[in-house]
Protein: CBS domain protein
Organism: Pyrobaculum oguniense
Amino acid sequence: MNCGEIAKKPAVAITPDKTIEEAAALMAQHRVGLLVIVDRENPKKPIGVVSERDIIRSIAQKIPPTATVDKVGTMHNFVYVYDHDPITAAAKKMRQHNVRHVVVVDKEGNLYGVISIRDLIGEKQVLEILARDWVPTQE
């Protein structure tokens, strides 16, 4: 099973000039924990992400809700996988980077979707693959 098969729903995107307040409203409206920040000129090109955690941190740091998402999100070095990667790649990256979402892109780097930890644990077949391929770490 590959990442493209799990990332069934389209990603919810936002442009970098939108505010934290607009991002929070969009997350609530779509019931998601991550928005993909896309290029204003090319909405297929992901350039960053903003998560619920980013919004909480911005509130704690007293950043005004009118600040733009590019000021609080992760820009350019966000965690992603390719749609043809095995689903284990998404799980490994989530664990390695301590994140709950990974962006899925196609071979050209265009936005394909998002995989959340909920997507992984909600699919019996995915859990079976992860259990079969799981290798204990030496921590």
